[in-house]
Q: What sequence folds into this?
């Protein structure tokens, strides 16, 4: 596995691979790698891609400096995990090359209005501008044929898909299924911050989604059931929503069909999210 930190070397490496007829699969991460990231690499390898993984803790998507400080950083372990997963080149760009003006804002921002300011974006202003801006830069430098993202960050996936379409970037965005622990907890780099007791409460997020998906009824009933399940477990609920999977517009009670249920909550100071496909059956 090649290890690259220099932006020009990274760009040349990608150019050489494309010139040699390889298709590049981009797996963008912020490190603290877990099986969810390994599944993204496996998907890229299954497609025969030359896998470039990036690890960059993107300051611009953290609206809370404490959250940025507390974000787990495990570089040595990450390199070993990336190598054993079959990454061809691991890129660890520097802050100086990604956001040279940091901590001042970079002048150019990519913003997907309407998708990025609701749900997670409502509680974390600017978060998706930071995500869209960094993913755009990573994709422009790398020039991948495919970019792999987990469905766990469902809103992020919707924002990235829309950005790619709106900017005409020549990359296929591949959404990969959520990877869960045996007890159902969606894998997240933040899970390491959960005490055993908090972890037990965190399971109410996936339970809430299970309750919604087993319910044969309209969206508003699902929202209420999900919220009640999480509150009962002592989770501070940020939202419990049922939305259109592309536009993220909330489903109303007249709608029938496949939608996405999304939940977010804070457990012992750790913010967690999860989601699942549901079938809503509206009234008349
Ligand atoms: O999902 C993540 O880890 C990050 O949001 C991403 C896509 C790497 C952008 O910083």
A:
């Amino acid at each position: 596995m090649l290890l690259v930190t220099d932006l020009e070397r990274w760009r040349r490496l990608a150019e050489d691979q494309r010139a040699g007829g390889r298709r590049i699969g981009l797996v963008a991460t912020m490190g603290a790698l877990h099986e969810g990231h390994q599944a993204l690499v496996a998907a890229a390898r299954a497609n025969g891609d030359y896998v470039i993984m990036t690890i960059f803790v993107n300051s611009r998507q953290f609206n809370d400096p404490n959250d940025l400080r507390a974000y787990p950083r495990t570089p040595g372990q990450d390199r070993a995990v990336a190598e054993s997963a079959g990454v061809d080149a691991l890129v660890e760009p520097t802050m100086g090359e990604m956001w040279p003006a940091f901590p001042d804002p970079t002048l150019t921002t990519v913003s997907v209005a309407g998708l990025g300011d609701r749900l997670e974006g409502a509680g974390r202003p600017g978060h998706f501008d930071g995500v869209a801006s960094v993913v755009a830069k990573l994709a422009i430098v790398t020039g991948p044929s495919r970019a792999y993202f987990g469905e766990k960050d469902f809103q992020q996936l919707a924002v990235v898909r829309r950005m790619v379409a709106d900017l005409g970037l020549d990359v296929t965005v591949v959404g990969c299924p959520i990877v869960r622990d045996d007890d159902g907890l969606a894998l997240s780099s933040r899970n390491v911050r959960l005490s055993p007791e908090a972890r037990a409460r965190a399971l109410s997020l996936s339970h809430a989604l299970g309750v919604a998906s087993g319910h044969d009824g309209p969206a508003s009933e699902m929202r209420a059931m999900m919220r009640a399940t999480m509150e009962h477990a002592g989770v501070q609920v940020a939202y419990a929503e049922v939305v259109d999977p592309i536009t993220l517009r909330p489903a109303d009670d007249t709608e029938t069909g496949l939608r996405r249920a999304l939940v977010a909550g804070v457990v012992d100071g750790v913010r967690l999210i999860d989601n699942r496909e549901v079938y809503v059956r509206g009234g008349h």
